[in-house]
Design goal:
five-stranded mixed β-sheet
Length: 167
């Protein structure tokens, strides 16, 4: 039997490699083309992890836009309703992979809900935006429910680029 490796395998594999290299042993719960679900147990607790990846084709652009469809938003809502300690992970990559140009954004449930309103019945397609600012230890996160700026002031949620080490 032969198996061809799809693009998603590289991104999810990179996430798993970072976890394992940091002493975290994940269990794969469910695989998919557009997302994977994992269970993680660390010294700080057990987590259910919903992962997606997004690819930016512009090598100098440090903004990743994750599109969440109506079907995915319903799935994420159900996932958060039935699980405790949920993390939403986005593997932020570039089309051309080079050293240090991929980020892993790890959002807690309240941070995700602050950026996208999963209960909104008007438009069930959402955008989650993740921006890396040069030399910043944080990623800025905003979306369809949260503007990046309000009255000219930064309104994005700041999440540590090292959050994976805090699990």
């Amino acid at each position: 039997m032969s198996y061809s490796i799809c693009k998603a395998d590289f991104y999810y594999g990179a996430f798993l490699s970072v976890l394992i290299n940091n002493g975290i042993n994940p269990a794969i719960v469910e695989l998919g083309d557009k997302r994977n679900i994992y269970e993680l147990t660390t010294d700080n607790g057990a987590y259910k992890v919903y992962t997606k990846y997004v690819v930016n084709s512009k090598p100098k652009d440090k903004l990743w836009n994750v599109i969440i469809t109506e079907k995915e938003s319903d799935e994420i809502s159900r996932f958060m309703d039935i699980n405790d300690n949920v993390l939403f992970v986005v593997i932020c990559a570039h089309k051309q992979l080079i050293n240090n140009n991929t980020e892993i954004a790890i959002l807690k449930t309240d941070e995700l809900k602050a950026c996208i309103d999963l209960d909104c019945n008007i438009n069930k397609n959402f955008r989650l935006s993740i921006r890396k600012k040069k030399h910043s230890p944080y990623l800025s996160v905003y979306g369809t429910h949260r503007a990046d700026k309000v009255d000219g002031r930064d309104n994005a949620i700041k999440i540590s680029r090292q959050r994976i080490l805090e699990l």
